Amino acid sequence: MASANLMTKYHIHVINDLPEFSSTLFVHCKSGDSDKGTKDLSWHEEYVWGTRINFFRTTLYYCYLQWRGVKERYIEAFKAKRDEIRCEKRKYCLWLVRKNGVYFSNDNSSWFLEYPW
Prior knowledge:
- The protein contains one helix and nine strands, in the order E-E-E-E-E-E-H-E-E-E.
- The protein is mainly beta and 117 residues long.
- It has one domain (17-109).
- The longest helix is centred in the last third of the chain and has 7 residues, at 80-86.
- The radius of gyration is 14 Å and the shape is globular.
- The model has no long low-confidence stretch (mean pLDDT 93).
- It is found in: Secreted.
- Keywords: Secreted, Self-incompatibility, Signal.
- This is S-protein homolog.
- Belongs to the plant self-incompatibility (S1) protein family.
């Protein structure tokens, strides 16, 4: 178990890396008690927000992603018990949406396919 500081703020980024001239990426992120709203992302645009882990370590944000007219899926964009460890060093979780799925990184250089379409 990580010794997460409840005051630590984590930053979540969802980045559109779909083909440059394809349709936009629709993103809607929310938790059980906080709706971050919707956004249509053009190529290389980002949807960004910050959160802190609650006392019970149950903080969870999920996002609905829709590549307009092509693909759609839900992802767990921030899950406290998972991400307090893997996003701890730099305090951010990065999600890169590509034509074959959604990739995760915590350092903006090593990307791992976490959610195929």
